[in-house]
Design a protein that fits this description.
With 365 residues, the chain is of the alpha/beta class. It has helices at 4-11, 14-21, 31-38, 53-59, 64-70, 107-111, 137-142, 153-156, 159-171, 177-184, 193-204, 209-218, 228-238, 242-247, 250-259, 265-269, 276-284, 288-296, 301-307, 318-323, 330-344, 350-363, and strands at residues 26-29, 45-49, 72-77, 80-86, 88-91, 100-103, 122-124, 145-146, 174-175. The N and C termini lie far apart (77 Å). The structure holds adenosine-5'-triphosphate. Residues 30-31, 46, 114-115, 119, 157, 159-160 line the site of adenosine-5'-triphosphate.
Length: 365
């Protein structure tokens, strides 16, 4: 690519509108620059203002209130999403603590707080176009390497180790040797469980989640559950099936497969093959994550539950029972459940039989 900045304006014409609204230095940064240099298409843009991001957001029609709360503003420019933040420095009072944030006087200072060299490149919007790349990010991109900016990076913010797995898996990058050594010493327990979980879930939503989780395990940073890797592989394959993909949240399923905690899935998998009615009763009481894990462990009948059994619906509903004289209350549910079970077992069909079965069960104490 001859001139990345020209390319950026060509692929994101909305930047011209941003440029015209700027009164202070503004830069495209982070993932947008990285993806541009990698030739990967990207929808959203991150901008940094050395000055007042809120004022620029307002000039672009963004809401000031949001900026005041989070220090960054999301605006839509000509239908494109743009995130605008004020340039800042971050100091870590202790390992894993939230950083003390202060405004940065230059874009270089802001780039210096970032996780990897490949994410610490900026392109100025107003000046003569060029790359601002103080940490050699472009060379690392060319060599497919992840490199931290300084030796305390993972100590300051251990979630960067999870980010490393995400980027390494997504781009097929390796770790620069110094970064590799630092990363393996990372103590993920200095950050809160919530922050760890949030970063793991971001990893787990990616297409390459399995590789990312495998990397974290190979670096010794996560404790796998028993047979975690095999289970992760099996669940990842099941999620290629649209029925399962639509039924279970991908990130929760993959994290549970790799890390646990184990639920009732082993028990469910070791069971006999139930009849449709029993199967539905069993499965509907379980979390979908437990079900996909049980399926991965061998409960193949769950495919039938997922695709057919659970979609079996009655032609009648509670109103029909009320119209037939049953009072509001548990009897309605009891009746409908009984009718559904019989329908699942193929013992009844049609409205009339459903109603008769439901009424009989509703009237039984
Ligand atoms: P993606 O393509 O996944 O959206 P991204 O680079 O936009 O990647 P974000 O998590 O949105 O990722 O972060 C935006 C930028 O903020 C990153 O490129 C990086 O420079 C910086 N950043 C985010 N999280 C951290 C962190 N924990 N430590 C240091 N810098 C970070």
């Amino acid at each position: 690519m001859d001139d990345p900045a020209v390319e950026l304006l060509r692929t994101h014409p909305e930047l011209e509108t941003v440029r015209q609204a700027t009164q202070e230095p503004v830069y495209v940064v982070g993932g947008a620059v990285r993806d541009l240099l990698l030739g990967r298409p990207r929808a959203d843009l991150d901008l940094v203002v050395v000055g007042n991001a809120g004022a620029l957001a307002e000039r672009l029609g963004g809401a000031e209130a949001e900026y005041a709360r989070f220090g960054t503003a999301k605006v839509e420019v000509e239908g494109h999403e743009v995130d605008i933040a004020t340039a800042r420095t971050e100091a870590y009072p202790e390992p894993g603590a939230l950083p003390v944030v202060a405004p940065a006087g230059t874009i270089e200072e802001d780039l210096g707080r970032r996780d990897f060299t490949i994410n610490a490149i900026a392109i100025p919007l107003a000046e003569e176009s060029h790359l601002i790349d103080p940490h050699g990010g472009r060379a690392d991109l060319d060599q497919s390497l992840l490199r931290v900016l300084h030796d305390r990076s993972f100590e300051d913010d251990p979630t960067r180790a999870i980010r490393a797995a995400r980027y390494a898996a997504r781009f097929g990058f390796g770790l620069e040797p110094g970064t590799d050594a630092l990363l393996r010493k990372t103590d993920l327990t200095t950050v809160s469980a919530d922050r760890r979980r949030a970063e793991l879930e971001r990893l787990a939503t990616e297409e390459s989640a399995r590789e990312g989780l495998e990397l974290l395990a190979s670096w010794g940073l996560i404790d796998l559950r028993k047979d975690g890797l095999a289970l992760l592989g099996a669940v990842d394959e099941l999620l290629e099936n649209p029925h399962w993909a639509e039924f279970v949240p991908r990130e929760r399923a993959l994290i549970a497969a790799a890390l646990g905690p184990p639920g009732g899935e082993e028990m469910l998998a070791s069971m006999w093959v139930p009849r449709p009615g029993e199967g539905v009763e069993l499965a509907e009481r379980r979390d979908p994550v437990e079900l996909i894990l049980a399926r991965a462990l061998g409960a193949n009948w769950l495919d039938r539950y997922l695709i057919t059994w659970r979609r079996v619906k009655l032609e009648i509903d509670g109103d029909d029972l009320i119209a037939a004289g049953i009072e509001q209350g548990p009897a309605i549910g009891r009746g409908l459940r009984a009718a559904r079970l019989k329908k699942l077992e193929g013992e009844i069909g049609g409205r009339k039989e459903e109603l008769a079965t439901a009424l009989a069960a509703a009237l039984r104490d």
